[in-house]
Amino acid sequence: MFESEYPNTHRYQPYLYAGMLFNTSMAWLDNDCADPVPDLAKVIISAIYFEK
After folding, report:
1. How large is the average pLDDT for residues 25-48?
2. 17 falls in which pLDDT band (50, 70, 90)?
3. C-alpha Rg value of the chain to the nearest Å
4. DSSP-assigned states of every residue in 2-52
5. How far, rounded to the nearest angstrom, does the alpha carbon of residue 15 sit from its chain's CA centroid?
6. Tell me, what DSSP letter sits at residue 1?
7. How far apart are CA 25 and CA 39, in angstroms?
8. For 20-31, how does the pLDDT look when each residue is reduced to its tens digit (9 = 90+)?
9. 28 with 1: CB under 8 angstroms?
């Protein structure tokens, strides 16, 4: 499904995003959820959509 919706991307890209989200959430939990969720969401969205 990902390949049909985003034909110009690499087939492993969704796995990279999933790994990033998992690792980020684990780091957030390890930090006792100290960072506000909106701040964490901004970091994740920036990494996915605004990567340079």
Report:
1. 93
2. confident
3. 13
4. HHHH-TTS-TTHHHHHHHHHHHHHHHHHHTTT-S-HHHHHHHHHHHHHS--
5. 10
6. -
7. 13
8. 999 999 999 999
9. no
Distances (CA, A) of 14 to 38, 40, 43, 47, 52: 22, 19, 18, 13, 18
Q: Report the residue count for the chain.
A: 52
**Token code pair at residue 42:** 């901004």
Among 25, 31, 19, 16, CA closest to 43: 25
Alpha carbons 50 and 42: distance in angstroms, whole number: 11
**Single-letter amino acid, residue 12:** Y
Q: Measure CA 50 to chain center.
A: 12
